[in-house]
UniProtKB/TrEMBL annotation:
Enzyme class: transferase
HAMAP family: Cytidyl_kinase_type1
GO biological process: pyrimidine nucleotide metabolic process
Name of the protein described by the UniProt record: Cytidylate kinase
Major site of localization recorded for this protein: cytoplasm
CDD domains (UniProt xref): CMPK
Organism: Sphingomonas panacis
Length: 214
C-alpha cells in the first residue's frame, strides 16, 4: 500500500505520515529532507540557490548529510523552497522518490507533490492543512524548544512566504490532488488528527478495493 501525505509547512503532515507508517508497518520517507539536503549542500559550497545550475550541482550530496541537524534549520527550509522550484532539481530527485514509493509492500511518503507527481497511483492520499497562524504557532514553539529566540511575527511571515513560493511555482506546485482527502488539523490534537487520518486512509482503500471488484 502506498500512502501519499502532502501539505504546507508545519501543517502536521510529517507527524501524521510517520505515525501512519508505524501503524501500517510501512517504510517512511520525508521527501522535504531531500530538498533540504540540496539546500544545505548549496550553502556548504557557497552556491546560489536561485541559479538552477548551482542547485542541480548540489543534488549530488553525501548521504550522511541527511542526518545533519542543519537540515532542520528554518534558514535551510527557506533555501529548500528556493532550490525546489527548479524543474531540473525536481527531476534529479524524482527517481529516488519513485523507487521508494514502489518498493514491495509499499511505503508512506510526505511532501508537496507526492499525490500529484511522485505517486499519483497511491492507494490513499491525504492533504493536511491548518491555518497559517496555527502552523506558525506550532513552528515557533518547536524553534523555541530548540533554543531559538525568533519572533512569532517572523515565523508567520516565513510560513506565508514559503506557502506563496511552494504554491506559485510552475513545476509541481503545492496543490491537493483531485482525489486526496482533506485533513484540517487546525483544531485537532495530534491524537485526534491521527485517528482521523487512519479513518480517511481506510475509507480510500476500501473504496479502491470496491472499484477494483467492479
Ligand atoms: N495536530 C497537532 N496539534 C498540535 N501540534 C501539532 C499537531 N500536528 C503537528 N504538531 C506539531 O507541529 C509541529 C510541525 O509538525 P510537523 O513537523 O509534523 O509538520 P510538517 O507539515 O511535517 O512540517 P514541515 O513541512 O516543515 O516538515 C511539530 O512540532 C508537531 O509536533
Ligand atoms: N515533495 C516535496 C517536499 C519538499 N519540497 C520543498 O522543500 C521545502 C522543505 O520541505 P519541508 O517539508 O521539509 O518543510 C518545502 O518548502 C518545499 O519547497 C518540495 O518542493 N516537494
Amino acid at each position: 500500500m502506498i500512502i501519499a501525505v502532502d501539505g504546507p509547512a508545519a501543517s502536521g503532515k510529517g507527524t501524521i505520515a510517520r505515525a501512519l507508517a508505524s501503524h501500517y508497518r510501512l517504510p517512511y520517507l520525508d521527501t522535504g529532507l531531500l530538498y533540504r539536503a540540496v539546500a544545505a549542500n548549496v550553502a556548504r559550497h557557497d552556491l546560489d540557490p536561485a541559479i538552477e545550475a548551482d542547485a542541480v550541482a548540489a543534488c549530488d550530496f553525501d548521504e550522511a548529510l541527511l542526518d545533519d541537524p542543519i537540515l532542520r534549520d528554518d534558514e535551510t527550509g527557506k533555501r529548500a523552497s528556493i532550490v525546489s522550484a527548479h524543474p531540473l532539481v525536481r527531476a534529479a530527485l524524482f527517481h529516488r522518490q519513485r523507487r521508494f514509493a514502489n518498493q514491495p509492500g509499499g511505503a508512506v511518503l510526505d511532501g508537496r507533490d507526492i499525490g500529484t507527481v511522485i505517486a499519483p497511483e497511491a492507494d490513499a492520499k491525504l492533504f493536511v492543512k491548518a491555518t497559517p497562524t496555527i502552523r506558525a504557532r506550532r513552528r515557533h514553539s518547536e524553534l523555541r524548544d530548540r533554543g531559538s529566540n525568533v519572533s512569532m511575527d517572523k515565523v508567520l511571515a516565513d510560513i506565508r512566504a514559503r506557502d506563496q513560493r511552494d504554491s506559485m511555482r510552475s513545476s509541481a506546485p503545492l496543490v491537493a490532488a483531485n482525489d486526496a482527502a482533506l485533513l484540517d488539523t487546525s483544531f485537532l490534537s495530534i491524537e485526534a488528527a491521527l485517528k482521523r487520518a487512519i479513518e480517511l486512509v481506510e475509507r480510500q482503500v476500501k473504496l479502491k478495493a470496491e472499484r477494483a471488484r467492479g
